[in-house]
Amino acid sequence: MQLPLLASTFVTVFLAELGDKTQLTIVTISGTTTKPAAVFLGSSAALVLASLLGAFAGGSLSSLIPADALQLAASAGFLLIGIRLLVRAGREDS
Amino acid sequence: MTDDSTALDTASESGERADGKEPMEATKTVAPAAGPADPTLLAIILTTFTTVFLAELGDKTQLAALLLAAESGRPLLVFTGAALALICSSLAGVLLGRWLATVLPPQRLERISGALMVSLGLWLGAQAGIGLINP
User: What is the ipTM of this complex?
Assistant: First the structure.
């Protein structure tokens, strides 16, 4: 058993993730929906798949798809969610 | 206007009667009324998945940390540790969101969340755009 490696990976990734934009997204989506289980399912699946690609593909993935292009696509997702929330809040106002 | 008020009166009366006689039926009629306003279960899962996946995959610090750990030559163990940590952090995020929903009024939470997401999107987009132009 390589428990130290498992534990150090867990602690490193967990601490890096706290307060990260990913977790902020999860907090906002879960806080404004009635189905938190769906949010947990979706985010967990995404994170597990991302770490699977990260652990096995490693550097070869980032040379294949530039990280900036992925970030640009993610920023579009953030904008979409944000605008939808603001529109919903505005609609409840009137 | 008078028609509306009478319609409301009869509706509330029948609602009270239903409540008094059969509480189960009353809750049943409430649930579908709240349903259509919300996006579907699949839509929530897909939105969350896509955004989180793209944001996480493009995260350079995350990639660097995993790459460093992967140099140990045990990718399965690294994957297990990282996956467990990410599931825990996403659970913490969901629980924090639910707690905020009980503390803040929904409209205020929507406004704060919306502003946060828009500014995060603009900041992230600007950074990625600069990175793409000047690699």
Answer: 0.85
